[in-house]
Design a protein that fits this description.
Layout (H helix, E strand, L loop, with lengths): L13 E6 L2 H9 L8 E5 L7 E5 L1 H4 L9 H7 L4 E4 L2 E2 L2 E2 L2 H14 L4 E6 L2 E5 L1 H10 L10 H4 L2 E2 L9 H10 L5 H24 L3 E6 L2 H8 L7 E3 L2 H9 L12 H10 L12 H20 L16 E6 L9 H26 L1 E14 L12 E4 L4 H20 L10 E15 L6 H9 L8 H4 L12 H11 L36 H14 L37 H9 L14 H21 L23 H5 L3 H11 L12 H5 L6
Parallel strand pairs: 2-4, 9-11, 10-11
Antiparallel strand pairs: 1-8, 1-10, 2-3, 5-6, 7-8, 12-15, 13-14, 13-15
Helix pairs in contact: 4-8, 5-8, 13-14, 15-18, 18-20
The structure holds a DNA duplex.
DNA sequence: ACGGATGTGACA
DNA sequence: TTGTCACAT
C-alpha cells in the first residue's frame, strides 16, 4: 500500500523569530539616547538624504517607510533621527549588524535546532523541547504562566469581552486541549523565555510566531509587532488562509504571486483550494505546483536546517547614474575595496569558524553607450578562490575582464571605451568547515611551515603582497591536539551550548594527526600548495601566527607505516608543474591557477568528508565547463601516488576505491590530479 | 539617478 | 557545473 511519504510530522513545533527594525535597534543600543525616538537607519546621506533601510516603530506612526529617502522621511516626520550605516572603504559596511545578528543566534541556538534565515531572522525547531516539557512539566500543571507568555496572541481564540490576558492564560492551562495545541503552548512558553533571554543578553527585542511549520510560523511572527508573539493553532489555519492575500505569503510576493492573481484570479491563499494538484502542476511545474497545493492547506514540510552561519559572503556596491565607472582603473580601485572587505570577512570566518570558501564570483551590471537596443546583461563569472586581498583582487579583475569581453562582444576591439559599470559585487561561496586536526593534510603542511622555503616558480609569483591580518593557524593546531582525546571540535563560535549536528565534526582514529618526514624541498612545495589551498601564499606567511615549537603529537600508526620520501624526488612537482599552466573558467586571465586549482582539489575532497556528514553540497575543484576533467582514475600513475605522504595516500586511495566509502565518487580524485585546462 | 547590500534557492 | 533568475529583508 503506497504511503504518502515519510512526511515530517505535522505536529512539529516551529518558531520564527524576527528582530524588530533590527538595524535601528543596533543603533539605539549604541546610542541609547535614540531610544523611544522616531529613528531610521539610512545609507549614503548625500543624495536626497540617503535611502532608509530600517525604520523604528515610532517613526512608522508618521508614515515613514523603508525605501523612502531621508528627505522624504524628514518631511513626514521632522523629528526623525537619521543614523547612517557605517561606511568603510567608501562603501556601506554592514558588519556591525551582522555581528549583532550573531549575538542573537548565539542565544537562540541554545534551544532546539536553529536556522539563521537572514541577518535578523531565525527559525527554531522546538519539537523535542516542547514534547519534553509536555511530558515532564505540562502547562496545565503550572500555577502561573509567565508574564511574557500571557501576552501571546493566539489566532482563532475568541476574546468575547473578557480580558485578553485571562483568555490566554486559560488557553495555556486548558487541560482537555488538543495535543497539538498543548505542544504549541509549550513551544510558546519556551519562545517567551528565549525572547526575554535575547533581550537580557543583547538588549534587542524581537517578535515571534509559533506554529506547526515554517510557513505558518513566519506568517505569524509578522502579525503582532514589535516585541510580541503569535501562536497559530491548527484549528485556526483554515480561516487564516481563507482571507489571506496571496502576496502576503513568502515566495508569493513577486511574479508568481502576480501570476496567481492575474492569470488565475486567485487573490487569497484560500482561493487556491479550487485548483487540483494536477492543475497547479501543469501551470507551474511539479515542484511549485505541489508547493502551492500544499500551502493552500497550511501544509509545509520544510525542515528547519541546523545552520548558524551564512553559506556565502558578499561585498558589493552600486554606482548609479553619474557615478558609473567608465575606466578600467576605477573598476580596479573599487574591486580592491570590495576585496579588502571580503578578505576581512573570510579571515574572520576562518579564525572563528574554521571555514574556508572555495569559489569567488564576480557580478557586475553595466550599460553601453549608443546602444539602447541590446539589453545584454553583464555575465557573472567565477573561479577558485585564493585568500589574500591581492589574490582576490587579481582574480576578481580577471573575472571582470572576462565578463567585459563577453559583454562587449568581439567587435569592440580597438573601439573607444563605450561602456559604464553601474554595479560591482564579489562573493565567496562553497564554504566548507576545515575538519580541524583531522586533516592529515592540514597537519602535514602546518608542521612544514617553519622549514626553509625554497623559492620556486610559485613563490616568485607572490612577492610584494604584504597584507595585515590575523590568521591563526596555531589555533587550528591546538584543536588538532585536543582532537587526540576524541573530543568534538569545530563547533562554530556562536554555538556555545554544544555540538551542532551540522557543523560539528566527530573524529575517528584514522583521522589522528601525524608528523611526516619529508625533505625540505618538498616541504617548500607542500607549504606553497597548502597555503594556496587556503589561498594564502608566501605573501601571507608573515600573517600566519606560526608557533615556533613543533607540536609533538603522538603518532598512532606503527613506525613501519611511516614513510620517508626520498630526497630529491620531484616527480610530483613536475607533475603539478606540467598541469599548472591553466586557469579555470576565466579564460582571459593572465595568471596561472594551476597549483591553486590542483591543491584546491585536495582541500575540496578532504573537506568532502565533512560535507558528507553535513548532507551538504557536493565537492569539486575548479572546472571550466570545457571538458577539463579528462583524467581517468586508471590513468593516474601509481608511482606518483606513492610519493605522497602516507596519510594523503590513504585518502587518495579511499577516493579511488569508492566501494569502501560508498557515498564518495571515485572521480573526485580527478580534481586533485587534473587542474582544468583551457587553451 | 536607482530601494542598497546581501543572502538563499530553483532552474536550464 | 556554471550562470541566470526570482525572491527576500
Amino acid at each position: 500500500m503506497p504511503v504518502a511519504r515519510p512526511e515530517s510530522s505535522n505536529s512539529r513545533v516551529i518558531a520564527h523569530i524576527d528582530m524588530d527594525c533590527f538595524y535601528v535597534q543596533v543603533e539605539q543600543r549604541k546610542q541609547p539616547i535614540l531610544r523611544g525616538h522616531p529613528t531610521a537607519v539610512v545609507q549614503y546621506n548625500s543624495w536626497k538624504g540617503g535611502g532608509l533601510i530600517a525604520v523604528s516603530y515610532e517613526a512608522r506612526k508618521y508614515g515613514v517607510k523603508r525605501s523612502m529617502r531621508g528627505d522624504e522621511a524628514k518631511k513626514v516626520c521632522p523629528d526623525i533621527q537619521l543614523v547612517q550605516v557605517p561606511v568603510a572603504r567608501g562603501k556601506a559596511d554592514l558588519t556591525v549588524y551582522r555581528n549583532a545578528g550573531s549575538e542573537v543566534v548565539s542565544v537562540l541556538s541554545k534551544k532546539g535546532r536553529c536556522e539563521r534565515a537572514s541577518i535578523d531572522e531565525v527559525y527554531l525547531d522546538l519539537t523535542e523541547a516542547a514534547e519534553t516539557m509536555l511530558a515532564d512539566n505540562p502547562p496545565e500543571r503550572l500555577e502561573v504562566i509567565g508574564e511574557e507568555a500571557t501576552k501571546s496572541h493566539i489566532l482563532g481564540l475568541h476574546l468575547d469581552g473578557a480580558d485578553a490576558r485571562d483568555c490566554v492564560r486559560e488557553w495555556f492551562l486548558k487541560k482537555d486541549a488538543d495535543h497539538r495545541d498543548k505542544l504549541l503552548a509549550c513551544g510558546a512558553l519556551i519562545v517567551a523565555e528565549l525572547r526575554l533571554e535575547v533581550l537580557k543578553e543583547t538588549e534587542f527585542t524581537c517578535s515571534a510566531g509559533i506554529a506547526h511549520n515554517k510557513m505558518l510560523a513566519k506568517l505569524a511572527s509578522g502579525m503582532n509587532k514589535p516585541s510580541q508573539q503569535t501562536i497559530v493553532p491548527q484549528s485556526s489555519v483554515e480561516k487564516l488562509l481563507e482571507s489571506l492575500p496571496v502576496k502576503k505569503m513568502k515566495q508569493l510576493g513577486g511574479k508568481l504571486g502576480t501570476s496567481l492573481q492575474v492569470d488565475l484570479g486567485v487573490n487569497t491563499v484560500g482561493d487556491l483550494l479550487k485548483f487540483s494538484n494536477q492543475k497547479l502542476q501543469e501551470l507551474y511545474g511539479i515542484n511549485t505546483g505541489t508547493w502551492l497545493w500544499n500551502i493552500a492547506r497550511g501544509v509545509c514540510g520544510l525542515e528547519v536546517e541546523g545552520r548558524l552561519l551564512p553559506k556565502s559572503h558578499g561585498s558589493g556596491k552600486t554606482f548609479p547614474g553619474p557615478q558609473a565607472l567608465e575606466t578600467i582603473s576605477s573598476v580596479k580601485k573599487w574591486l580592491h575595496e570590495l576585496c579588502e572587505e571580503l578578505s576581512d570577512r573570510l579571515l574572520s570566518d576562518l579564525n572563528q569558524n574554521k571555514r574556508i570558501a572555495r569559489t569567488l564570483t564576480l557580478h557586475a551590471s553595466a550599460y553601453k553607450m549608443n546602444d539602447s537596443e541590446s539589453i545584454k546583461k553583464f555575465p557573472s563569472k567565477s573561479c577558485p578562490l585564493r585568500y589574500g586581498v591581492t589574490k582576490l583582487q587579481e582574480d576578481a579583475m580577471s573575472l571582470f575582464n572576462a565578463g567585459l569581453g563577453e559583454y562587449l562582444g568581439v567587435y569592440h576591439v580597438g573601439k573607444h571605451q563605450e561602456w559604464a559599470i553601474t554595479g560591482l559585487s564579489i562573493s565567496a561561496s562553497k564554504i566548507v568547515v576545515i575538519p580541524s586536526g583531522t586533516h592529515s593534510i592540514m597537519k602535514y603542511f602546518c608542521n612544514q611551515n617553519q622549514t626553509s622555503t625554497q623559492s620556486n616558480m610559485l613563490s616568485d609569483a607572490c612577492t610584494e603582497d604584504r597584507e595585515s591580518s590575523d590568521l591563526h593557524l596555531a589555533d587550528l593546531k591546538i584543536d588538532a591536539y585536543k582532537n587526540e582525546a576524541g573530543t568534538e571540535c569545530c563547533a562554530p563560535i556562536l554555538n556555545t551550548s554544544g555540538p551542532d549536528a551540522e557543523e560539528t565534526l566527530k573524529l575517528d582514529d584514522n583521522q589522528a594527526p601525524h608528523i611526516y618526514e619529508v625533505n625540505h624541498q618538498r616541504a617548500g612545495l607542500a607549504e606553497e600548495a597548502l597555503l594556496q589551498c587556503f589561498g594564502c601564499e608566501n605573501d601571507m606567511e608573515s600573517k600566519i601566527n606560526q608557533p615556533k615549537l613543533n607540536l609533538a603529537v603522538p603518532n598512532r600508526k606503527s613506525g613501519k607505516e611511516k614513510r620517508k620520501i626520498e630526497k630529491g624526488s620531484s616527480s610530483i612537482l613536475q607533475f603539478f608543474s606540467s598541469q599548472s599552466q591553466s586557469l579555470s573558467s576565466c579564460s582571459s586571465s593572465e595568471h596561472p591557477h594551476g597549483i591553486g586549482s590542483t591543491f584546491q582539489g585536495i582541500g575540496a575532497s578532504v573537506s568532502g568528508k565533512l560535507v558528507q556528514e553535513n548532507h551538504s553540497s557536493s565537492l569539486s575543484g575548479s572546472s571550466n565547463g570545457d571538458g577539463g576533467w579528462s583524467y581517468k582514475s586508471e590513468e593516474i600513475d601509481p608511482t606518483v601516488l606513492n610519493e605522497l605522504p602516507l596519510e594523503i595516500q590513504e585518502e587518495v586511495r579511499a577516493w579511488l576505491h569508492p566501494q569502501k566509502q560508498p557515498r564518495r565518487r571515485g572521480s573526485d580524485i580527478l580534481h586533485y590530479f587534473s587542474p582544468s585546462t583551457n587553451k
